[in-house]
Amino acid sequence: xxxxxxxxxxxxxxxxxxxxxxxxxxHEAYWLYGYDPDxxxxxxxxxxxxxxxxLLRRESAFMLLPDGTVLAQQGAGRNxxxxxxxxxxxxxxxxxxxxxxxxxxxxxxxxxxxxxxxSVAAPWNTEGDWGEQPPSLRYHQFYDARGTVTVSxxxxxxxxxxxxSHSRRRRDMxxxxxxxxxxxxxxxxxxxxxxxxxxTKDHPERxxxxxxxxxxxxxxxxxxxxxxxxxxxxxxxxxxxxxAGRHKAVITAETIASAFVTPAPEGRRYGAHTGxxxxxxxxxxxxxxxxxxxxxxxGLERSALRTAITIPAAGRPHDGRTS
Length: 323
Fold this sequence. Notes:
The protein is an all-beta fold. The protein contains one helix and 21 strands. It has one domain.
């Protein structure tokens, strides 16, 4: 449970809605996202209520392993064999498959993820005074993780910093052109984060950020943030600049490893499938941050229209699809 709320919600708002939706048209999701630089293990675990159903859930999971491979699974909901998150095998993606998507014979493995998250800061109200108001909610919260991912009998313990999200809101996707959700934390205890949307036909670029100093969140203007415009598996050098009154943070980021998924009406496909068709490419990544000489780690998720992304020749996509 949170230490305290930084938004306009009572503590019981953190409890998931099971068997009902209030309001009925709101979508609910939980998210855990972190990286252990010592173990070289990253975790991205997302659980969302299936649209128009009060019982079914859909999961998305990406796990980065020490050898650089990425485990990927998106399923459950109406694609599972029960009214719970699916327990299907995960793709083990390596090399060009991370960008291009799995081949027909790509390896499938059984994986078990066990993670315990201990909150270390109050939640940050991502919406503030510009987004949706109650009864909608969305907040992010820093935590310390400890857990194990076991792959085909081999256990990989991990710890390290992370952040969680809980949202309960409408998802109005028409006109969506891309976003970024970025969070990082440092050994000194300070941190930063942002939620930013790319401009659409009807709305200018919007969103907000924070810097976290000495246990206090400072609301920040997002001056510079990285768009997703190329699909590469890692090694991107990016810049983030946040202004929070007298506090100015210029943070350089390097992606350690990125994954890619392309939602489509017929189902989600792993890999970055660009082209003239409508829709977006989503890229969850794990990143290393530098801020005034201090190194930290965290999650860096971005998305963009398929038409706005280029792919190096070596990463041309296959036809791998998720169920």
